[in-house]
Amino acid sequence: MIRYDDALARIWEAIAPLPPVELPPLRLLGCYLAAPLVAPIPLPPCDDSAMDGYAVVAAATTGASRESPRWLAVGSEARPIATGDPMPADADAVVPIEWVRVERDRIAVLREVVRGANVRRRGEDVEAGDVVAPAGMRIDPGLVLAAGSLGVERLSAHPRVRIAVLPVGHHLAAGRPDATGPAVAAAVRAWGAAARLLPPATGGAEAVAERIRRALRTCDLLITAGAASVGADDVVPAAVESIGAQVLFHGVSIKPGKPIGVAQWEGRTLLLLPGSPTAALAGLEGIGRAVHARLAGADRPTPVAARLGRRLQRRRGKTGLLRGTARVAGSTLIFEPAAKQGPAQISAVVGTNALAVIPPDAEGIEAGAPLQVLLLDRPAAAANDGRLYAVCGWSGAGKTWVVEQLVARLTAAGLRVATIKHHGCGDSLEPAEKDTARHRSAGAMATALVAAEGTTVVRAQPVSLETLAAELLAGGADLVIAEGFKSAAGVPKIEVAARGRERVHAAPLFALVAEEGGIPPTDEGMDRLAAMLLER
To answer: pTM score > 0.90 for this model?
Structure first.
């Protein structure tokens, strides 16, 4: 067992950030720069106007007022100029449009301007060679704006970390519900990262080792949830050892979450979490955040200073990771610990937004005492985080075949895939004489059709593709594939193009060309497409 600080240091020393990629800035939103953004040109690139108005020689406006305007000829003495336009060589100021009165081919200047007024000088904002953003900075809308303004079409950044969560435990084989795995996946997604929740692994060490090996081939970081301690049923440590992984540590002197571990295998990283829900989330936030930050090329997560809101009594010996609520009182951050802090106390995590890091030698801590707190503020997820795609194309081109092939490959890789089909048979889902149609016409908001093979819910009102996909993802799907919906804005398209016919989408994410009679069974093309979706 190692100390908490030593575990964090070992993560930073042993794990390298993911190899950088070069992509357009918008594609890298939320990623971290692998190299600084250096200005190739000055901004502005030349002296330009900061206002809409007229470029003039400032001396020609001396003494101008509403009562005694200065008259200038348009073209020779005053030239119309828009914001951002280069300044004429013989002008040294701009009179705003609000300060002039136009009369045919001349203007009346109503207020004088001084030399340099409303002019932005070359390099005033950024000089060529300036470091606009250092390596390690998160790419946000402002950085996208800076790159675009500088004419930088591609940035070097570490890609998004592909994360998978594998619940482990013999108890899951009996059909008992798993709370820890979904909670871990939810916490990772709340960071702004994407996480796939895999089906549980329920066998012995050999079977679990095979599941771990297969999962690691499709992700950068595999998080196992459960069976991580040293009991007879804790098979994950033995499984990790059997695949030849290099264990950085297993067991950290923290409470809760002591059985946590980190290992590496063929360039991939494993994070071993205990099965107790609160302990798993404490370890994920206290240790897992650092692992993710390192792989993503971000700075090491740093606690912030706070004051304890009420007296805290605890036993010394281990670093405490305590859930609670951080609130601002004036200029001070106050941390209120949750009332119950046991490893299985669900109430400790509901509604909390911070994790206090309590030193191992601290015992009784009085209210108002200083302490360090990890804030769990999380960025909002993108409208589409790479988990919704639309397969579109002409009728008969082979869209359904492509969906079938993708579902089979992605399911084999461990994903839970949901599909949505665009209904192309008119406005009605069923003939009017059917019982369910009569239910809806009577005013039912929704009708469920139940059969031995499954259940279908028909709603009275249409639902957008994005809303329906969000419901399927919230219900446990890792990825949603929609057939049709070529006009859905913001949804990446996979086009099945018909040879000899015009394309249905101008810029698809991926395109396949159909021969007569539909798509031929080309495994190579489908394998490439499935691999690309897994990487995204």
So the answer is: no
